[in-house]
Design brief:
The protein is of the alpha+beta class. The chain has helices spanning about 1-10, 15-50, 55-65, 70-80, 90-125, 135-160, 165-180, 180-195, 235-240, 270, 275-285, 315-335; strands at about 10, 15, 205-210, 210-220, 220-225, 230-235, 245, 255-260, 290-300, 305-310. Helices cover about 55% and strands about 15% of the residues. α2 (about 15-50) packs antiparallel against α4. About 10% of the residues are buried.
Length: about 350
């Protein structure tokens, strides 16, 4: 027993065997506590949260799961140093390792928050995203890159180095890169502008200047339209944010105005029937709403009526189908009433 006590009191490297033993026990206990936290608590909570509809608890588990054994080991080693005398060099090495490893895992955990925010942001539009998944991923990539740069600069600063010169160098290099990639950056930031402002989305029919088509893809650099002729039209995002864009998909209803001319030989009794006949033709369509029909003017060769109705649909094909049927019915009703539609004529009067 005395020999064992003497062994425990034997000095080695500035500490006794007993102090080393206590430090080792503290290290093992600390690792065991971390093991209980990671394996038992987190894994059980993960299985429990799988049955919940709330995704915040999933985020918490994902963040906790990012912390790994290198971090646990360095902190367990740091705890063990409280029980022994450690050379300043060793303490400094462990502190630096804890700083680097801790910062690394904190950034990984912060990335989970970024992923969660980007996911929720992209899903809030419901039926369709304004910008494709690539654009949302690029936005997340920018945020993560900025986070890593800040973390690296903070670590370098805490290690005692002056980062002012480094930041100045990065600023000059960043300006050079920005000038070289100016056009690309304009399109990238324009895609973010389209995402936030939401002027159109995939499936919308838009008109840009003299071009028009259905939006098929909104990318990082360009947007692709399928024109009515069938070809694919590619327009840069920067151009789309600097011109007027007519979005017909957002139109809740379409107002239609057209003129209808009958011959001068038409009697007044039949002229009075024209508004009711036109109204009857328009009201026969379920998605059409009659507005008005008035005898507007005396033309060069016709008596002109102005007709206004509304199409309760934004679909251009629906409008054309209804317009087609309405025109046929108007002609049918006019033929039954023997009302002649006018066409350009010229009468020559010859005096003897």
């Amino acid at each position: 027993m005395a020999n064992f006590t003497q062994l425990l009191q034997t000095p080695i490297g500035g500490n006794t065997v007993q102090e080393y033993t206590i430090a080792l026990i503290a290290f093992v206990i600390s690792l065991f506590i971390f093991w209980v936290f990671k394996v038992l608590i987190i894994n059980r909570l993960k299985k429990l949260f799988e049955h919940t509809k709330n995704d915040v608890d999933d985020l918490i588990i994902a963040v906790a799961g990012k912390f790994g054994w290198p971090l646990y080991s360095i902190f367990a080693l740091w705890v063990s140093f409280f029980f022994i005398a450690v050379p300043p060099v060793a303490t400094q090495a462990v502190t630096i390792a804890a700083l680097i490893i801790g910062t690394y895992y904190l950034v990984l955990a912060a990335n989970e928050f970024i992923n969660y925010g980007i996911k929720k942001w992209g899903a809030r539009d419901g039926e369709g995203d304004v910008v494709d998944d690539t654009s949302i991923s690029i936005l997340g990539l920018f945020l993560k890159a900025a986070l890593w740069i800040i973390a690296i600069l903070l670590v370098i600063s805490n290690l005692g180095y002056n980062i002012s010169t480094l930041i100045a160098g990065l600023g000059i290099g960043g300006l050079a890169i920005a000038f070289a990639l100016q056009k690309i950056f304009e399109d990238i930031f324009a895609s973010f502008s389209i995402y936030f402002d939401k002027p159109f989305q995939t499936g919308d029919y838009i008109v840009v200047g003299e071009d028009s088509g259905i939006v098929k893809h909104i990318g990082i650099k360009s947007t692709r339209l399928q024109t009515l002729q069938g070809e694919e039209l590619i327009i840069s995002n920067h151009e789309l944010t600097n011109v007027r864009v007519h979005n017909y998909k957002r139109m809740e209803e379409r107002r239609v105005v057209f003129n209808l001319g009958v011959t001068y030989e038409t009697k007044n009794a039949k002229l009075k029937k024209v508004p009711s006949l036109v109204e009857k033709a328009i009201k026969s369509e379920k998605k059409a709403t009659f507005d008005r029909c008035h005898f507007k003017s005396f033309g060069n060769f016709s008596l002109n009526f102005e007709v206004v109705y509304r199409v309760n649909s934004s679909d251009y094909a629906d409008y054309m189908d209804m317009n087609h049927d309405i025109n046929l019915k108007i002609k049918e009703f006019f033929e039954k009433e023997k009302i002649d539609m006018a066409y350009p004529t010229q009468t020559v009067i010859v005096q003897k």
